[in-house]
Amino acid sequence: MSASIHTLTPELGAEIRGIDLAAPLDDASRDLIYRAFLEHHLVVIRSQAGLSTARVLELSRVFGRDLEPHTFQEFHHPETPLIIVLSNRTEAGGKPKGLADAGTFWHSDVSYQANPAKATLLYAVEVPEDGGDTLFCNLTAAYEALPAAMKARLDGLTAVHDYLHSKRDILVEGKVAAPPPGVHPVVRTHAETGRKAIYINPAYTTHIEGLESAESDALMAEIFDHCLAERFRMTYRWKPGDVVVWDNAATMHSATTKHLDPAKHRTLWRTIISGDTPVR
Ligand SMILES: O=C(O)CCC(=O)C(=O)O
Ligand SMILES: [Fe+2]
To answer: Tell me, what's the pLDDT at 71?
Structure first.
């Protein structure tokens, strides 16, 4: 069966059919997956239950050469630090088997880093019948839909991104030292497609540089309001065996796991594909 691309919504996401990830990927499949990723910002490959960690790492490398181990070592997959386990399961004694909530807030992954993640891959090992959806927002389409005057106003601005802005419990508990904040353009140009996207997010962006704090807050609120309109959004409902990969330079996302019934088990493997410094 040859692989084909099917859009999920007119603006965001594509499903790739006709690919079996249990077998090594040929060059044509890699090209097709990567092209769909650039064009649609998010790709889904369904019904891939039972993949090994090696297969998940091989697929991750379609999107970039370098993968990053996650800061929270306690949730690394036992076979490799390049996969972190997201799970609400606990062992006997209550020890968590994974990171139970990787971010029930709108964010672009590790945007506080100097070189934020290029892409993120999630592989659904087990997911409940309902609940635990992941929400996505297309920041390229949101930028392109801005009035010219707003584009001109944002172009050239920079913003500070700080991990502590979202007040992560794990840091409050003092388990991991907080990474230093990063500064990035408010509008970034995609390194490969050349398309511009808004690059601030409610979870990590503390303020826009050079503006009074009230003005920065008001401008950010206005932009987030615009971005989070229904037409730029997509809700992903997981099925076991789904693989989803998104472009962090073109989208933001939110988990909903904070509100998931603890009796419903959800376990995903996650890899991070390294990125470059965002540019204007
Ligand atoms: O668990 C989810 O739905 C998404 C978690 C998340 O934000 C991530 O993996 O980057
Ligand atoms: Fe995330």
So the answer is: 79
